[in-house]
Amino acid sequence: MADQHTQHYDAIKDVVLTDFLDTDTETTFKASDLWKEKPTIIIVIRRPGCPFCREEVRIIDEHRELIEKEMGFRIVVVLHEKLGAATFKRDYWNGGETYWDKSKGFYRALG
């Protein structure tokens, strides 16, 4: 099992993500920066307009305080397209951290 986790880590650690919402200038960084400071739950969303994706992230958002403050995890969303991202973040992810994976590296690596 450890080999599988290592393969997934190797496949995503260098994926370039973009911080593009609520900022004047888009900035990019490596995915491995997400978990540099603390354990991180990464929710990979293919399409912000997907009703199933919206519902799943809304459910997780309901428990965000418990997960982040009491359990000590960071939670972020990684999207594969920008269309509808602002609405998704505002209405379903309650303003949580949201990044764009332009290359779809997470999708390719994790299936």
Automatic annotation (TrEMBL):
It comes from the Eukaryota. InterPro entries: PXL2A/B/C, Thioredoxin-like_sf. The keyword Cytoplasm applies. It is found in: Cytoplasm. Keywords: Cytoplasm, Redox-active center. GO terms for cellular component: cytoplasm. Belongs to the peroxiredoxin-like PRXL2 family. PRXL2A subfamily. PANTHER family: PEROXIREDOXIN-LIKE 2A, PTHR28630. This is Peroxiredoxin-like 2A. It comes from Linnemannia exigua.
